[in-house]
Design brief:
The complex is a heterodimer of chains A (433) and B (212). Chain A is an alpha+beta fold and 433 residues long. Chain A is built from 9 helices and 25 strands. In chain A, the strands form 6 sheets. In chain A, strands 6-5-14-9-10 form a 5-stranded mixed β-sheet. In chain A, strands 7, 8, 11, 12 and 13 form a 5-stranded antiparallel β-sheet that branches. The two termini of chain A are 15 Å apart. The chains are: A alpha+beta (433), B mainly alpha (212).
Chain lengths: 433, 212
Amino acid sequence: MVRDMTTDSPTDNSKLQARRSFLRGGLAIGGAAAAAAATSGAALANGDPNILELKDWNQYPGDGVDARPYGAPSEFEEHVQRKSVPWLTADPISSVNFTPLHELDGIITPNGLCFERHHSGIAEVDPSEHRLMINGLVDKQLVFTMEDLMRFPRKNQINFLECAANSGMEWRGAQLNGCQFTHGMIHNVMYTGVPLKTLLEEAGLKGNAKWLLPEGADASGMTRSVPIEKALDDCLVAWKMNGEALRPEQGYPLRLVVPGWEGNMWVKWLRRIEVGDKPWHHREETSKYTDLMANGKARRFTWEMDVKSVITNPSPQAPLKHDKGFTVLSGVAWSGRGKVSRVDVSLDGGRNWQAARIDGPSIDKSMHRFYFDFDWDGSELLLQSRAIDSEGYVQPTKDALRAVRGENSIYHNNGIQTWHIKKDGTVENVEVS
Amino acid sequence: MSKFPKLIVAAMAASLLTGAAFAGKYKLGREATSEEVAAWNIDVRPDGQGLPEGSGTVSRGEEIWTDQCASCHGDFGEAVDRWPVIAGGQDSLASEDPVKTVGSYWPYLSTVFDYVNRAMPFTEARSLTPDDVYALTAYIMNINDLVDEDFELSKANFAEQKLPNEKNFFDDDRSSSPVFAKTEPCMSNCKPEVSVTMRARVLDVTPEDDSD
């Protein structure tokens, strides 16, 4: 039995029941529910009707080629969507929604499910009218068309993009029931583009070039100051994601890729890069994306996203739907400072840990997929995951972060997440001692 | 880095420019015209680099504010709904409810000018003249009790203006923090007992599904 020290006992049972039925209903569409009933009830006498009875799709031809010239997921997957938290922001034009991590597997995020964050809505840019300018401390100030850019030698790289405010709503304690909402401001994509270094060398950097100011073509004119060392290291000016053109909401036709660093710096609809000798201290690196400490002072230029992980299944939106027995625990881990070298999983709220199994490619500054395959005895569990990166940094507990940063930081919460698995398989976001 | 290599780079750059040869290896793109650079190069730095010619008074700023800003930010910067609060919040940063405004939090006045000029008003960015932006910046200083109502801000006196919270920002030092210890973590019997201290359902702010 998991000891509960929360003072508020759930009195609003009807609401809780409604949530449970919603959670359980997530995948229980028509046939699936019938099948579950059939295999557990008297209908099993002659066998599963899904086997015994002829199905439409088994008898009649379906759509031909070209019926779906750009394919979309099955109608049975319509619940797999980005979702927002409406009370979070004043207006959807300057807001965020969240990647449904609990519905995904492997390490690549499908383009249509990558979370969105806009500061003045989606700019719908005609690529034939789009230009990229490099100005400032260069030998020659240059203008490129999209066609010019696509003639440079290309590079492909898989990187996660995490908003600095991911998990920011959890600084003061467990608040949102679902890893989509607690950890969904992240996606992991293969980008194709030209290294930023190549473009800067084409323009010719002057000796006092120390900082860059990438700027977006949207109505927020997004800008961030980027130190030249990062620009010359691994930044990419990209026009493709997962093999196809960037989606409008991800910056079509051109965006900056800043591997491992906070998502706000990955300027979308990239139209200009100014080269300077000092940072600009613009709105998104002073008023926003600075980390307020308990003593009222604020940390700035906190670019790297620290080592972090979360269990995506089971989780509040993806409860266990079976009785005790063998099951698969899965999750994702990432670090803005390198690869993930290990992920540990705890079933008892952090008392005891076991190494999880990382499966699939292990790539620098990319999401990693981990599994912990175990036999659930049907008892309550307090699930946690803890990632360790190739630099040796260990994902801290939320309380350890609060002890040094207070609760007003908003940004860079990489603390260990706890999910409480109940005996009935439902899952809740909790904090533990 | 010594100054010597910089001189070499500068000399190389000069020779390339005078020689009219293309600096680039791939010879892609074209040189930007001065008019093109001027059209897009609107950014402003704390030292005043990038400021356009112009000036504006607090009273002129109040007129524009009332007309174009107050519907979201409130008559005196107190904000409507969840739109950003612009004024007030002094001495709140170390409290449980910090209010981060231009007067209480923002380190540099140039950020106000740059942001208003590039992104405000929210539904019609780039519609303000330089004089409008100087006036609005002056008004925002006034409602934060930084200048009197007869103040006029201009390119000439801009760099003299300081915001009170500038000294309270410090550069990233996370890697020296105790939570960043590179030590092998505990694997068994790491704490004597575990209890639940907080549950998300107590607040219950998770969005419900439409189909629920």
